[in-house]
Amino acid sequence: MDSKSVKKLLRIYKNSLFEGRNVYLACKEIAKMTKYKVFMALTANILNNGTYDLLFSLIEKNMVHVVVTTGDFVVYDILRTLIGKDLNEKAFTAEDEETIKNFIGQIALENCGATIPPSKFIKIIGEKLGFNSILGQAARNNVHFYAPTICDSLIGIYCTDIHVDSLKDVYNINYECFFVKKTGAIILGTSVIKHTVLNANLFKNGLNSCVIVNTCNEVDGSDSGGDVDEAISWGKIRGNTTSVKIRADPSVIFPIIGSYWLSKV
């Protein structure tokens, strides 16, 4: 979406009700983050050709500084970069699995016996893929990628010759919040990615700004369903913020808020 279309849409949402109004408020919140250290959390299934390019641009322009995702995101980026595979259009095949097996197997062989955290392993993958990939751009711009559940994917199946130290990354991502004046977060989705970002910011007395997008509710009794108020009660988001949660499909909302964010460059 171009900036004029986004701004026109937001003028409509400004006087809307329910989640439309929250989309407007979320964009206003994101505008504050241009001078913050920004954390982003998202799952692999949010990505398609359009949103892939959007995230690529955000990382290329250094608007995101820390990303928390899943092992499948890494798999997606490998397949898209090496063989042009779009998993939203074509089903996963045995050929795709062989591509992952060979690529990851070669990296594992080169680092045989090493003990490394997932973030370092992802950086190695990015350097191998090159600058046309999201992970390659992240490695180039020193954007740190974390995948707490990286072994819950094909990466875990074929990464057999090295030791993945996930505990080290707990320290690493928490340390991202030390000695930082202001942090912001955009959380697209639920579960581990959401908790990891919020919990890390507990170590700096909470996020200064946060936008959460998912379809879960507080009545679930889950971390995923937790509202902004719940995070404030734990000190993960500061109480004096105007952080907002949008109860909607992240794949629908991300193109709007992401395009608005890019217009702030």
Automatic annotation (TrEMBL):
InterPro entries: Deoxyhypusine_synthase, Deoxyhypusine_synthase_sf, DHS-like_NAD/FAD-binding_dom. The keyword Transferase applies. Belongs to the deoxyhypusine synthase family. It holds the Pfam family DS. Its EC number is 2.5.1.46. SUPFAM superfamilies: DHS-like NAD/FAD-binding domain. One of its GO terms (molecular function) is deoxyhypusine synthase activity. Keywords: NAD, Transferase. Gene3D superfamilies: Deoxyhypusine synthase. One of its GO terms (cellular component) is cytoplasm. It comes from the Eukaryota. It catalyses: [eIF5A protein]-L-lysine + spermidine = [eIF5A protein]-deoxyhypusine + propane-1,3-diamine. Pathway: Protein modification; eIF5A hypusination. Catalyzes the NAD-dependent oxidative cleavage of spermidine and the subsequent transfer of the butylamine moiety of spermidine to the epsilon-amino group of a specific lysine residue of the eIF-5A precursor protein to form the intermediate deoxyhypusine residue. This is deoxyhypusine synthase.
